[in-house]
Fold this sequence. Notes:
Helices cover 55% and strands 14% of the residues. It has 174 residues and is of the alpha+beta class. The chain starts with a helix and ends in a 5-residue tail after the last helix.
Amino acid sequence: MSEEAILSRKLRKALQLLLFQHHRLPGAKGWELRKALGKDYLNIIRILNKKLEDLGLEIKIIHESKEEEDLDKARFYIVFKSISEELSSWRIDTLAILAVSIAYIATKNSVKKQELQELLKEKFPDWKIDQELNMFIRRGYLEEKDENLYIGWRTKAEVDIKKLIESIAGYNIS
């Protein structure tokens, strides 16, 4: 098999691993990519990322632990370069609840669900808050563990949290 054919096969395999959900979460862990693609899997990912740019997509690497050098434990996702395509169909109040929720949780690392609901009740009806928070949890923007809310995998992959907080606060965070 020629080198070009091998590269093409590895690119297809990488795309398959990243697009199709194998477990509870989409994407693939670094160790899964290394096992399927070989030691040079990062080079394959770089090449695939360049090809995806033409489609308005990119590969994001989200580190699940504080050790950002450990790519084996990191999760690789394919996301839109601009999430405006996905969020453009959302209502403005839904986006506002999401933005406030992400910013509030990010400043505290985690927050009691009831505390966030109390904050949101100042501007939104109870039924809307419950409905939207549950949707954000289902879609992976927020994560719920023991009545606490955390930033979800999808927020880490799709949202620039620092930029969001800066735009809400009105000044740059260093």
